[in-house]
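Holo model, S-adenosylmethionine. Inputs:
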Amino acid sequence: MSNRRLSLEEAQALSSGSDHYTAYVGPPREYDAMGATQFRLLCTLGLRAHHRLLDFGCGSLRAGRLLIPYLDSDHYFGIEPNPWLIEDGIQNEVGADQVEIKRPRFLHHDDFDCSAFGVDFDYVLAQSIFSHCGPDLIERGLAAFQRSLSPDGLAAVTFIHPEEGQDPAPGEGWVYPESVTHSVSSIHELVYDAGLHSLAIPWYHPRQTWWLLARTPDRLPGRDQLDLLQGAVFASPR
Ligand SMILES: C[S@@+](CC[C@H](N)C(=O)[O-])C[C@H]1O[C@@H](n2cnc3c(N)ncnc32)[C@H](O)[C@@H]1O
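Output:
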């Protein structure tokens, strides 16, 4: 772990997947914005403090550092197989006091099981997870989300679609830090087979596409809410 103790400034030069908490989860220069856009999306979709949220593959708490203070105590749940990411996220971003006050709960398994917390979730967030999964793991993840979402719950997940004219490269197993691509039709099929309903949404992401998943079609946003998402421009920093 040679880069783990680098300063934030030094870590900016690292490539995605490097062993620093701001770099392992994506380009380090985007660490702040990629947390902010996840938080804003969830609030725009109706997340409020009393909801229970599962941050699946929560990494170094890029979104968690905003979600943990916002949610009521005992309402943030994270699954992350690399404990060092959570440790460094808490040490550098969240702080021990916030952990004591809000009591976020974490598990470190990598088998996609979401049931071990023993609660159903109002929201599941899986940012940049399925963009690194072959269909075998996506199937497992979707089945787990279906089982752990409350009847009125909503999951926000990201996929990468192939460029126009290119074939999908769906990979197999966990592919990291490289990404895989999935066609819209194969995503629909995987989601349908898991007993979920889905909608791709026009929310900002520099490389991926956000999809919402729900157990009933009524829970997915209608035209009005889609307009709201579309209009929420994410300004570039000056
Ligand atoms: C691209 S990072 C995204 C992290 C976080 N969602 C974010 O947006 O900052 C992917 C994360 O998935 C985690 N991961 C890998 N395999 C996993 C599994 N089987 N279950 C849950 N998370 C996993 C990785 O350790 C890594 O932290």
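Residues 69 and 98 are 7 Å apart (CA to CA). The domain at 30-231 is CATH 3.40.50.150 (Rossmann fold).
Archived with the compound record.
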